[in-house]
Amino acid sequence: MGESSTKELAAERQARLRELLHERRVVRVEEFASELAVSAATVRRDLAALESAGGLKRVHGGAVATAETLLADEPLFDDKAERAALQKRRIADAALELLPQGHTTLFLDGGSTVLALALLLMRQARHTVVTNSLRVAQTLAASGPQVIVSGGELRRLSQTFVGPQTRHVIERLSFDIAFIGTLGVTADDGLTTTDPDEAYTKELAIKRARRVVLLADATKVGAVSTVRFAPLSSVNTFVTDTSVPQRSLAALREAYPALQILTV
Asked: Which of 20, 36, 53, 197 is the most buried (most CB within 10 A)?
């Protein structure tokens, strides 16, 4: 076999390795060798080449995705906000209709669809909003509800305050409704996101809420990210858009009959 053919095969294997790492977060030498019918030594050489390129970290028996690889799954906040903007606005309109007439204490997390709801709350002074989102706090800084910010470490990628320091505020409060965003939602894996500290704060808020409303457009349905922060059974209402495949909605309803799903 010529040198060029050998390089092409190595490139194909390494591309497949990247795909597996994206899907599974962990690649084991024996599994990959068996899958592609190559030797373990060949797999180890491929892993070494990818590690040199910064695509993974080798560990005993295989490799794991690096933080940079995992963060590549999550776009910048402004990019997220621009995607499916019309659908997010419709979801936010429907979420606003779920609010009772009297005073309520709401938790708004850092999702871009949740931010669309915050824009509508600028004319709703009767509520109290607790948030870990820098963007939500900025949106409501001039008018609208009373705002309580959770504090915590600022995660610039998502423009949210996250991690154990958010506990000091969130655990001392109770929420009538928590509006939560997600990067992925499935019946089996529940709600998932990329960052453990982000997941920690979302989980705290969900536990302190009497009602949990998930706001997520169709692109999130069927997706699975790195860290699970809640089972779907913890959600009371799921508001999404009409482009979600009916078979996906049917699977969610079958697995969780008590879940209210609103498509708009």
From this structure: 197
